[in-house]
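Supplementary Methods, section 5.1.

A reviewer requested that the exact input to the structure prediction be made available. We therefore reproduce it here, unchanged from the version used in the analyses.
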Amino acid sequence: MANGGITPSPGGSGEGNPLEFIYTLATVGLVFVILIVVELWKYPWQVSAFFAGCIFLGYIIMRFWPHTVKTGQGRAFIYTLLIEGRLVRVFRLGGVYQSATNLGFHWAEPVFAYHRAFDAVFEADRVLTSMYGHGVHRVLALGGGGFAWPKHALLARPDLIMGVVELDPKVIETAEAWFYVERLKKLAKKRLHIIEGDGRAYLEERAELIAQTEHLLPEGDAAGEARAEEPRAEGALEAGASAEGPRDESAPEAGEPDATESVEGAPAESASTGIVKRAPHRGRSARPRRTRRFDAIVNDTFTGDEPVRALATVEAARAVRDCLVPGGVYAMNVVSRDDGQDLTFLRDEVATLAEVFAHVHVLPVDETVWAGEDNYIVLATDAQTVFDGTIPYDEDFLGTPMHDEEPA
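The structure derived from this sequence is encoded token-by-token as follows.
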């Protein structure tokens, strides 16, 4: 499930065929090259300089020439635009910008405003610190895309540990090759964990593991949520999910210790493959280890310009809540329709989350450059966290809660 949901604005940066201009420019350049060769063939040093220029031009073309990638949702286009004085590489699929990245020194800065708006989850720092002694420390991102927000958040907050769930392996490969994720993996090291798989299935499996391990642990351990959520500099979220090694689509079995637990009987990581393997249990260390909860979960999953419905229902929201610490924050990207006139999905999603969480907030996003539709970040929590910039609404605003199976 790629992330995104930025519909190009009419007359803006996404109007028309993005490849048409580049093909035209290439044709003009080819004619120009032929003319130069005809004029300079008798002047050796000029010809040498010309070919040196061709080598440089070839490098530029290799870096910025449009590429196509066949993904699970269809063929995606990767190309470069010049927007407000910056070169921006975009990942376009299904007529929608799934992600984008600045090139050069600003590679980790989010291009889209709604990615920056996801930082609202860190406004829960004060509440979580009062409850557990630390702020937002462990985060799960649903939908990888170009990893725009994970890049920004991980580099801005050196204590952050983040898992990113992405369904499509081709999207992950594209992000690694073209959107600086390989560089991010080297910088973030074990603070980044890429999980290839379905977001809804991951939530439900992890929620089940949390319930099982908390039930099996003695009361003194199960009750100590604050101690269980103490910050760690490094640690894997799931066995085999390390950014340093192969991706593992499967969740650990019930009672399997977290890879964060560096104790006797905990999983051992293979030096050759990076895969976390469960070591034999010995003595008292055989008791189950806690499957830890997240401080925040961010949902940016779309299929083209459509949100992933399996992650937008009451049942999905319950799975999210079961994976959060009490007082944790869930943030979801929602997009309008009909040039901002149709807010049906936003209203339905607010009503859906209100069925599960005590407090639901709506944060509008000002996306003036890229989007033809309006973006909103819906924030849900059971704590009385105050989020800057949210807008009030009343009962009349609420739509119809969405369920996995709509009543007949």
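The mean pLDDT is 78. These observations are discussed further in the main text.
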